[in-house]
Amino acid sequence: MDICLQIQMFIWYSTIVINMKAIFWTNFDKSIDQIKDQYHSMEESVKEMQQTLQEWNKDKEIQELNDRIKWIYNHSLCTNLSDKEIADLQAFRQKHYETCCGNGKYKSNGNNWIYDIGGTGLGHIIKITCPECGETEDVTDIDNW
């Protein structure tokens, strides 16, 4: 290979390397600045999360969730029960626990009750029956339809 050609190739290669370094270092500085900005942003986020964690009241949150679960449990019997229906069901169960199960007249029913839920097309008719004495009460809240 001719020496002139080798020198030209060396100059061409050196120019490419110098240009590549200039491009790399220019982008490198920008990349470092972006990384620093991202780091500072993440630091701020961590501080905010730590503050939120310090202010969080675990017991209050758990109590609210337990209350919500209890409400859902109490208001579900294959249908959504209204507060009036819940109150009527509780009153019936309490009355029959005292009269049928608590006085020795009947055996204890183990807190078992017979529920009759019937559809009407407008809403549900809900009846509860005491398995000991056989008394049935309609606790339907038609205002809830």
Lay out the secondary structure:
Elements: H1 3-55, H2 58-74, H3 83-101, E1 114-119, E2 124-129, E3 136-138
Explain what you see.
The protein is mostly helical and 145 residues long. It has a domain at 82-144. The protein is built from three helices and three strands. A three-stranded antiparallel β-sheet has the order 1-2-3, with helices on one face. Strand 1 (114-119) and strand 2 form a beta hairpin. It is rod-shaped.
In brief, what are we looking at here?
By secondary structure, this protein is mostly helical. The protein is built from three helices and three strands; from the N terminus they run αααβββ.
SSE order, one letter for each helix or strand:
HHHEEE
* Tertiary shape: rod-shaped
Classify the beta-strand content into a percent band.
Answer: 5-15%
What average pLDDT do the residues reach? 77
Report strand order across the widest sheet. 1-2-3
Uncertain stretches of 5 or more adjacent residues: none
Q: Cα-atom Rg, whole angstroms?
A: 39 Å
**Main beta sheet, described?**
3 strands, antiparallel
Counting DSSP H or I runs of 4 or more residues, the number of helices is: 3
- State the share of residues found in helices, binned by percent: 55-70%
Number of strands: 3
N-to-C CA distance: 99 Å
Q: What structural class should be given to the helix and strand makeup?
A: mainly alpha
